[in-house]
Design goal:
mainly beta, outer membrane lipoprotein receptor (LolB), chain A, 12 strands, globular
């Protein structure tokens, strides 16, 4: 298998949008107290960072437990601003506007960005992983690379029939209190893994990183879908 396979853009957007659905909101009552304490710490630590820079590996495993797709990427986060780099595509948002550059077609699509829209791609929410619409429990400790991690399992409790996954596993570094891996068990039998290989909090990231330069593009290469 070729590890440089380009995962279709729709799958990446679906994956990250799905992750974003389990972010930033208050935890429901009557949940596993051990899991709650770990998730509270994860949220507190992550929200304290001014910026996050991360390299990740995204893989899809089919029903037969064989890896079918794999790609690496990089994400920059600064408050509500983000930049996502994946093979063939770059997505940038300054918190109000989002630019999506399809490198293969050399085309740019511009949209309004709404951080409150849970269905919209938002990598700025990737690293905080709990929501009142999910039940969760502590599972076990497991090593991911050199890090010993807590493993917490989440199950959607609000409109689960509308989710494309039935279970989410979050791996939280016991020492650093950072998310180091996420596994989504999909209803179609596939497994999607998101493993963070490099995580750099509070690195200097200039605001211009989150502005997309349209100067090199002609008018017919730009699609503006803003209201």
């Amino acid at each position: 298998m070729n590890n440089n396979t380009h995962v279709p853009m729709k799958k990446i957007i679906l994956f990250i949008a799905s992750i974003s659905l389990v972010a930033f909101n208050a935890i429901a009552q009557d949940q596993d107290p051990k899991a709650k304490a770990i998730l509270d710490d994860l949220s507190k630590v992550t929200k304290s960072y001014k910026t996050i820079t991360s390299d990740y590996i995204f893989t899809i495993i089919n029903k037969d437990k064989k890896q079918t797709e794999k790609q690496t990427g990089k994400v920059f986060v600064k408050g509500a601003k983000f930049k996502l780099e994946i093979p063939g595509n770059t997505i940038v948002s300054d918190g109000a506007t989002m630019w999506a550059h399809n490198k293969d077609a050399n085309e740019v699509t511009i949209k309004n960005f709404d951080a409150s829209n849970e269905d919209q791609l938002n990598p700025s929410k990737i690293f905080i992983m709990y929501e009142s619409g999910y039940k969760y429990k502590y599972d076990k400790e497991e090593k991911v690379g050199a890090a010993m991690c807590h493993v917490i399992i989440l199950y959607p409790s609000i409109k689960p029939e509308k989710k494309k996954f039935h279970t989410v596993k979050i791996y939280v570094d016991k020492t650093k209190k950072q998310m180091c891996k996420l596994v989504m068990l999909m209803k179609d039998g596939t497994t999607q893994n998101y493993e963070i290989k490099v995580f750099k909090p509070n690195a200097e990231v200039a605001d211009k990183v989150f502005i997309f330069d349209l100067k090199p593009f002609k008018a017919d290469q730009i699609t503006d879908e803003r209201d």
